[in-house]
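Pinned message: reference record for N-acetyltransferase domain-containing protein
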Amino acid sequence: GEDGVKEGRVPMTSLRRFTAEDVFGFTNINLDYLTETYNLAFYFQYLVRWPEYFEVAETPSGRMMGYIMGKAEGKGTNWHGHVTALTVAPEFRRIGLAQHLMNELEEISEKKHNGYFVDLFVRKSNELAINMYKKFGYSVYRRVIGYYSGEEDAYDMRKALARDVDKESIIPLKNPVYPEDLEAP
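Predicted structure (tokens):
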């Protein structure tokens, strides 16, 4: 296929740090209606504060295939890596790229930041993403009522890292929470 993409495997892909110019190059990726989009200031804030967590996957010809952005946050045993956004352009899906990007973020969270777990929020209705994250080893920790603009609930999904030997960080909560109940970073 184009850019060496073959079904079922990650093609010749290079990962690199996200740069300021990249915000103008990911239109093809962010057109997906399930991709949360943010204003430029939001992307630049992440780029400045957590550059190691903001990575782009591109083809040998320099086409953007996908990106991941995240951060380290929390206190004490709640210190963790957080996936703010993960998205892959439609033409590069189903080749293992999301797993590749998630592995990178998990490694940064574990080796550089010594976190206890990685978490992410996903729309309760997005079964495709929920199942993908489950395949990557994530489980639902809690439901957050009205997380998405007060209109849709989110699942807070987590995956324990090596530092959480007893996997206490992923024991599911029995009751849902509201966005205002979430820990401040």
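Pinned by admin. Summary line: The helical segments are 27-30, 40-49, 97-112, 127-135.
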